Amino acid sequence: MPPPGRKPLLLVEDEPDIRESLRDLLADAGYPVLTAANGREALECLRTSPERPALILLDLMMPMMGGSTFLERLEQEPKDLAAIPVVVLSAAKDSATRNLATVGRIEKPIDLDELLECVKRYCG
Percent of the chain, pLDDT > 70? Predict the structure, then answer.
């Protein structure tokens, strides 16, 4: 169970096995986790969630709405949503993610210690 007052994070990943594994890992570490399978679901989650996530972990390559399009749309949202830090989870090389409006990047396959350190930085 997460500590009282800890803000959730939003995990956006289209691969169900990866999404569920990361959700379970983060929840076991005490972080409340919201999930979405693509950018469209993520925007809907952000708009309807009663509490704003402290961090968005974002896959880039997804059907329906990929990570790059999600980031473009996020910038058009109200300031409280647009200001949420985003960390990209991607196997794409640095040049493919260099110009994205994000606070960080974690390369796939994901190093779990690196992921937990990143989440701790933004979610306490």
Answer: 89
Rounded Cα distance between 88 and 20, Å, is: 17
Q: Where are the beta strands (DSSP E) in the chain?
A: 9-12, 33-36, 55-59, 86-90, 104-107
CB-based contacts of 22, cutoff 8 Å, min separation 6? 11, 13, 33, 57, 110, 115
- Please check the confidence at residue 30 and state whether its pLDDT lies above 80: yes
Answer yes or no: are the C-beta atoms of 52 and 81 closer than 8 Å.
yes
pTM of the model: 0.90
More confident residue, 24 or 7: 24
Which pair of tokens denotes residue 1?
Answer: 């169970």
Q: Which fold has domain 10-123?
A: Rossmann fold (3.40.50)
Residue in the block written with tokens 């990866």: 18
Neighbours of 67 (CB within 10 A): 27
Check: CB of residue 69 under 8 Å from CB of residue 26. Answer: no
Q: CA 9 to CA 27: how far, in whole Å?
A: 10
